Amino acid sequence: MKRLAMVIALLGTSLVGATAAAGNVPVYGYTVTHTWPHDTHAYTEGLFYLDGYLYEGTGNVGQSFVRKVDLQSGKVLQQQATPGPGFFGEGIVAWKDRLIELTWRGQQGFVFDLATLKPLARFSYPGEGWGLTSDGTHLLMSDGTPTLRRLDPETLQQVGSIDVTADGDPLANLNELEWVNGQIYANVWLTQRIARIDPASGKVVGWIDLSGLGPRPEDTPDPGNDVLNGIAYDAADDRLFVTGKRWPHVYEIRLTGPRH
C-alpha cells in the first residue's frame, strides 16, 4: 500500500501476521477461473464490483483516481481525480447513490455521485485511511492497525470498532476490505494472504493463500510496492475477484481446501 520506506518500521507487525497464519487457522487455496485485463498504471487501493462493473480507487499523489471499469475489456469508462492537491487515494465503497473514498494520511475522505463520479462533499477522520467496505448497515474502515472502525454511512463518523486477532495475536496491516457472505475479507499488506474475519468476534477464521498469483515481482515496475491489493465480490453470481497494484490482470478465483 504505502511506500517501501515504511517496510522497516512495520516489519514487526508484518511478522505477526505471518506467524499467526502458521497457527491453527484453516488455510484456503485457489483456482483461477477467469483472467481479465487490468491497467498497469493503476496503483490499486480500493476495489468493488457493482451491477456488472468494477469500481477502482488508485493511490499515489497526483495519480489518485476513482474510476468505473469495464470488467471484460479493462477499459476505463468514467474517471474522476481525487479532489485537492497532495492527497493519496485509498479505499472506496458504494453506499446508496454515493461512492466514498478515503485518503492515506490526509485525514480527509471524499464523497462522489456514484452515477457520474462528480465530487459532492468531503469528511474528516483522525489517523490514516486504508480500506473500506460495507456490511449493509455500517461502513467498515481499516487504518493499518489491528482495529477496524465502524462508521455510520450517513454521517461518516465512527460508531464502533472491531479488534482483529489471529490465533490470539493482534493482526496489523489490514488493508483493502471486502464483505463476503457475512465475513470481512482483508488483504494483509506485504503478504500474499487474505484474512477472513468474523465481524462479531474479530477473529481470523480463515486465510486465503494466494502465493503464486500475479506477476513475478521482478516483472513489475516497483517490486517492493506493486503487491497484492484489491478484492471485489459479485454476490449475485458468487464471484470473487482479486488483483494487485499495477498488476496486468484481475483474477476471478474459486477457493479450494481448506487445509490445516
Tell me about this structure.
The chain has one helix at 7-21, and strands spanning 27-37, 44-50, 53-58, 65-70, 76-81, 89-95, 98-103, 108-113, 119-124, 132-134, 139-141, 147-151, 158-163, 165-166, 169-170, 174-180, 183-188, 193-197, 204-209, 228-234, 239-244, 249-259. 6% of the residues lie in helices and 50% in strands. The protein has 260 residues and is mainly beta. The chain starts with 6 loop residues before the first helix and ends with a strand. The strands form 5 sheets. It has an 8-stranded mixed sheet. Strands 2-3-4-5 form a 4-stranded antiparallel sheet, with no helix packed on it. The chain is built from 1 helix and 22 strands.
Task: List the defining traits of the structure above.
single chain, 260 residues, mainly beta, 8-stranded mixed beta sheet, 4-stranded antiparallel beta sheet, 1 helix, 6% helix, globular
Strand content: over 45%
Radius of gyration: 17 Å
Briefly note the structural class of the backbone: mainly beta
Low-pLDDT residue intervals, each spanning 5 or more residues: 3-21
Number of separate strands: 22
Helix content range of the residues, please? under 10%
Topology pattern, helix = H, strand = E: HEEEEEEEEEEEEEEEEEEEEEE
**Tally of individual helices:** 1
Distance between the termini: 29 Å
Shape label: globular
Largest beta sheet: what is the strand line-up?
16-17-18-19-1-22-21-20
The major β-sheet equals:
8 strands, mixed
Can you give the mean pLDDT?
Answer: 92
